[in-house]
């Protein structure tokens, strides 16, 4: 009886671990995408400023 309970407990624990690690991965993935979007925005603004400066003051 104890052995059976032990196996069930291990399976449940494994399932909880899988769900939590998957959730953490999804969370990190969302944060990573937001991070990339912010970097992309900064690069775009920087290039825009650079282009306007070069247009106004030809090197």
Short description:
The chain is mainly α. It has one helix at 2-56.
Brief descriptors of the model:
single chain; 59 residues; mainly alpha; 1 helix; 93% helix; 0% strand; rod-shaped
Helix and strand element order: H
Shape: rod-shaped
Helix content: over 70%
Structural class: mainly alpha
- Measured between the Cα atoms of the first and last residue, the distance is 83 Å
Would you count the extended β strands for me? 0
CA radius of gyration is 25 Å
**Main beta-sheet annotation:** none
As a percent range, the share of strand residues is: under 5%
Low-confidence segments: none
Mean pLDDT reading: 76
The number of helical segments is: 1
Keywords: Membrane, Transmembrane, Transmembrane helix
Transmembrane segments: 35-57
Characterize the structure shown.
The chain has 59 residues and is an all-alpha fold. Helices cover 93% and strands 0% of the residues. The longest helix is centred in the middle third of the chain and has 55 residues, at 2-56. The protein starts with a helix and ends with a helix. The chain crosses the membrane at residues 35-57. Keywords: Membrane, Transmembrane, Transmembrane helix.
